[in-house]
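Severity: low
Component: inverse-folding endpoint
Summary: output formatting inconsistent between runs
Steps to reproduce: submit the following structure tokens with default settings.
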């Protein structure tokens, strides 16, 4: 005994200190990445959004950029349209991804499971630009699908399927599918098959089992996938611009225009913060409505 402490307690202190130091060293790259690429740029954007130029190289604190957003119908109309289209794309992605994830997690076995997952992964072996250009080749007036529809007699002449809201949704769902399938597979694989068998033995049908057992168990994966897909869709620039054309009316295009075309960084920064606030609010609302906690969702999925 030294200073009232047993020997094992004194020997344990250096090991705990060593473990803390190792943990800090392991976390240092991630923390530096978060600080340098996320925190500091957002602070700079916040400062830019709250200033107005009154003279060359002279600025003052102002909310003029946010007033411009409110007073200009085009901006807030595009803002609301982007939010609604992103929510719709997320819902469609979930509806399409859930059967796929169920098939991979619960129905397929052995090599078939791996093959199905690889089939979901193959489109992501190429960049988003190439995938979007592939859809343009398929859907343009002289593309494969309009020519096939005319050959089958469905249309009297080739129809240009590009530059429609439905086309934008197809591209968004296609580019986001994998990010919904992966968390759903992780959540469904942990579901005990005996629970489903017991539910059938007790007189349950497919719909009641899905509603009372499968969906509650997969809720963390559903919420995690929806968060990721919604964030990716809301901030997507390339797919809506290429598939929707000049009339896509996507809010990220407005941000790009302010930064790159008009060199109005103050207005672009304000738009960026508005988009960040929108995504945060909708994610928070989704968590509240689903009764999930963000930390638990990320941990379980």
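Observed output (run 2 of 3):
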């Amino acid at each position: 005994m030294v200073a009232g402490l047993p020997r094992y307690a004194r020997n344990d202190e250096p090991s705990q200190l060593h473990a803390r130091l190792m943990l800090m060293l392991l976390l240092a790259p991630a923390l530096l990445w978060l600080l340098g690429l996320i925190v500091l740029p957002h602070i700079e954007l916040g400062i830019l959004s709250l200033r107005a130029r009154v003279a060359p190289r002279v600025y003052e604190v102002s909310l003029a950029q946010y007033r411009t957003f409110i007073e200009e119908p085009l901006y807030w109309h595009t803002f609301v349209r982007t939010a609604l289209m992103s929510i719709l794309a997320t819902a469609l992605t979930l509806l399409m991804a859930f059967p796929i994830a169920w098939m991979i997690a619960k129905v397929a076995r052995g090599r078939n499971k791996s093959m199905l997952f690889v089939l979901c992964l193959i489109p992501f072996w190429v960049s988003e630009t190439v995938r979007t250009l592939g859809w343009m080749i398929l859907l343009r007036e002289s593309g494969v699908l309009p020519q096939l529809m005319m050959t089958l007699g469905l249309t009297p002449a080739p129809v240009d399927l590009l530059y429609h809201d439905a086309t934008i949704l197809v591209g968004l769902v296609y580019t986001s599918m994998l990010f919904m399938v992966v968390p759903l597979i992780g959540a469904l694989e942990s579901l005990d098959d005996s629970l489903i068998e017991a539910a059938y033995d007790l007189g349950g049908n497919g719909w009641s089992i899905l509603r009372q057992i499968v969906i509650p168990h997969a809720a963390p994966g559903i919420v995690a996938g929806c968060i990721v897909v919604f964030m990716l869709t809301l901030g997507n620039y390339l797919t809506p611009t290429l598939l929707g054309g000049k009339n896509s009316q996507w809010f990220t295009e407005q941000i790009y225009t302010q930064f790159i075309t008009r060199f109005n960084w103050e207005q672009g920064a304000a738009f960026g913060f508005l988009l960040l606030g929108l995504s945060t609010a909708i994610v928070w609302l989704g968590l509240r409505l689903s009764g999930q906690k963000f930390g638990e969702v990320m941990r379980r999925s």
